[in-house]
DNA sequence: CTGAAAGCGCTTACAG
DNA sequence: CTGAAAGCGCTTACAG
């Protein structure tokens, strides 16, 4: 079964390819009624389906954007991606999702691959370690929007949570509930990943504001695999924290696993707040108090910003960056 | 900044476009050493990146496959998709994921869209309600593989769990633990979705084999939103079940939510087993006994099968269908 | 060992 | 109101 092309339709309808193309693109201001009909019949008879690849080549636009996430395992990421897809879909854009797995090499591979595929723009949760590439995109004024993180000194807009506030909200809730010895645990800080750094900053600020001393020992960061042992040490300090703030969903899960395994009671032995409103928060026992990110709004904002840039209604510049407000979801874990 | 094309490279290197193309495609059996070098230098100097859209048009292959999932909310789906991506990535294929949201209209839209984008093949978690379209793909021998579900009478290979066995494993575990009054709850059966139907079948078989009567009242199905009220009724029967099998992860979550809200103790008041090994199973309290699907293996098998078909090493036929074995993960909820 | 030419399936000024 | 022609950026027999 040969693929039917616009030429076949033209022949069948006894008009030129141009006319068929006009018809298909709904540019029939002056097209004869019978012509339209003949083309429509030919299209149906032959079961013609346009070849988008050919169109893209000619139009130099694919109506597709790429999304490169740093790590698909974060619940936040999944949610944001869904929102991006929804927005794009509504504007008739398609999305290609790639997972860089926190690896700059993979990120580079995907950026190059997606650009080779001629996607019209990119939303990146940047690893931060491909500055030359980011710069190249800027130089060629290729549409890019960063999500969740920013890259210092790079004039690319970022969609971000108000991270300091998220941590402050959590710490203030601990304080209100009478906790004074509050720890914080986060995934690795070595890459200076924006949300992590800012959340730790917010944690410190909130404590300082209440005149509570900040113990270095109370601030833990590391890869998820090492968190269990870190936690073990933390809780065996002479004066261990009575409450702990999990910097994101993966950290929260490690804490809950540890608690379960060691018979640490939440919140009696250890109160917990997690940043990111995990799926099971509401029906876990105890229900987990979290700080929720407006994932849908953030995804939507990122997609809309990118599409605006693609459609030249906006400039790729840090000016366009947006911060979103976190919300404290009070439940039973503190 | 103009996009640099193969013509620019050719001019720069003072060779023809053909030669550059050969070089880029590593067809340089007989290419002069200096020629290669000149081309390589030109490529670097100009920062040339090939345009995959143009290549795809010519080669009539995009090295991209489409994945249309019925419902991205299932944990199973996410896992399988990741495995598919991994396999494709390793074979230098790209993937475009679309979520049909259990809606045949969306499914149709995506099938047509992806074919228009000239993807080389499709992995579909079929809604089952687009038989004409499925048939059309078969007729034009377009590569398709079904995942998770099969469509009756359609000669397309499916990658599936041994669903009956999954339910049997769960029921047998209930029985071993001394339970006799065992209910089953699943998402809607009206579309005869393979796994749901087969799991209910397995549940019945296992009971029958042990000579336990099957109560219609004990088998509940419906949309996730209505499950709470259904559950309420079920547990207020004169002789309510003491254990319940959740047909999938979404159902399990509804059950746990209900239990939490109504103070139903698991497993004391109600024992629970879920099909699908949810993320929180191991650290929930109580840890949830589940029947796990080999998600990674299944995704891998589906992707490999499709890629084989695309590369003409295998035929699109139901013969190629594969069933996978479930595993009982014994924990504390029964 | 390398190049000229045709062609993949579209779109788009432009001419009439 | 419709068509001929050029061109998007590649690849691929084929010729030499």
Outline of the structure:
2 copies of one chain form a homodimer. The first copy, chain A, is an alpha/beta fold.
Number of strands of chain A: 12
Q: Element order, helices and strands of chain A?
A: HHHHEHEHEHEEHEHEHEHEEHEE
Oligomer: homodimer
Indicate how many domains the architecture of chain A comprises: 3
Instruction: Work out the largest interface and the residue count of each chain.
Output: A-B, 42 and 42 residues
Question: Which geometry of chain A do the CA atoms define?
Answer: elongated
Distance between the termini of chain A: 66 Å
Strand content of chain A: 15-25%
The CATH topology of the largest domain in chain A: Rossmann fold
* CATH H-level superfamily title of the largest domain in chain A: Response regulator
Instruction: List low-pLDDT spans of chain A.
Output: none
The percent range for helix content of chain A is 40-55%
Strands ordered across the widest β-sheet of chain A: 2-1-3-4-5-11
Q: Give Rg of chain A in angstroms.
A: 26 Å
Describe the largest sheet of chain A.
6 strands, parallel
Protein name (chains A, B): Glucose-resistance amylase regulator
InterPro entries (chains A, B): HTH_LacI, LacI/GalR-like_sensor, Lambda_DNA-bd_dom_sf, Peripla_BP_I
Organism (chains A, B): Halobacillus karajensis
Keywords (chains A, B): DNA-binding, Repressor, Transcription, Transcription regulation
